[in-house]
Amino acid sequence: MSALNLQVESVDELAKIANEVRIDILNMVHKAQSGHIGGAYSAAEIVTTLYFNEMKNLDPSDPRKPNRDRFVLSKGHACPVWYSCLSKLGYFDRENLDHLRQLNSMLQGHPDMKSTPGIDITTGSLGHGCASATGMALEGRLTGDGRRVYSVLGDGEINEGVVWETAMAAGKYKLDNLVFIVDKNNLQMDGTSDQIMPLLSVEDKFESFGWNVVSIDGHDISQVMKAFEAARNYKGKPTCIVASTIKGKGVSFMENVRNWHGKAPSDDEYHEALAELTA
Fold first, then answer.
1. I want to staple 36 with a disulfide (CB 3.0 to 4.6 A). Which of 73, 77, 145, 164 is the partner?
2. What is the DSSP string of 35-62?
3. CB burial class (10 A; 0-12, 13-18, 19+) of residue 162?
């Protein structure tokens, strides 16, 4: 297994990797005929930038390195985006991508820290991942190991009350080594986020809990990079990056279509999507 350079500086190169990640996701979900493409695609630029540019002290040969930065995918159903990045970095053989959601596979339908190298915490029950990330950040504060902790949440996920309990705690302890990224694609399984449970201003909510807030286009890698830089430089408060995204981004017939929350493509849809991603 060979790892790519963990510090890719070029926006164009990061965009190329994000597109490759989308192809991996398509291949995984099509082969499994199960999985979540829409929310994985909306987070592709965010997770790619985290792993190939932002996070420090990552070592695929030592996944539990004590001073590593941590990542928690709180919206765990979007895990194919995480699996692709980890495989590209050499955490496990890429042939494992062919076994998504199969019995005894290391790549289950939600991230499993006991099965998959590079997974810092098991997630899937919405709201609990970001709470775990906050605990990791607090531990880092207490040990002084210099870690930063990043967690991606869905905008539908933040309907969960535990998210706001977590936001209160992080604000209270002024965890400036903690970054939440809200993947705001405005679609859930059963409809738009505004229809299911209106969020009003996500930015105002986090600010009211004592967070530094940055709003960006989550598909503009230069904006994503600048937001992470701003979070690193902001002291005394945790940072929430509210990233406006498009569910299914990258494949025209999947974009902003609710059914692609958890739908696997047919053979024809697979080939049409692959043609767009490889054009």
1. 77
2. S--HHHHHTHHHHHHIIIII--S--TT-
3. middle
Half-sphere exposure of 229 (CA within 13 A, CB side): 8
- For residue 90, which amino acid is it? G
pLDDT of residue 235: 98
Biggest alpha carbon–alpha carbon distance for the chain: 53
- Give the domain ranges of the chain: 11-277
Tell me the mean pLDDT per 10 residues along the chain, length 279: 62 97 98 97 98 96 95 97 97 97 95 96 94 98 96 95 96 98 91 86 97 98 98 98 98 95 96 97
Find the helix or strand (DSSP H, E) in which 134 lies. helix 128-143
Helix, strand or coil for residue 261? helix
Q: Which two tokens mark 113?
A: 């820290």
Looking up tokens 């998210």 gives: 163
Secondary structure (DSSP) of 139-187: HHHHHT----EEEEEETTGGGSHHHHHHHHHHHHTT-TTEEEEEEE--E
Q: Quick one: the chain helix, strand, coil %, rounded to 5? A: 45, 10, 45
CA distance 259 to 272: 17
Tokens of 225: 């990079």
Helix (H) or strand (E) holding 244: strand 239-244
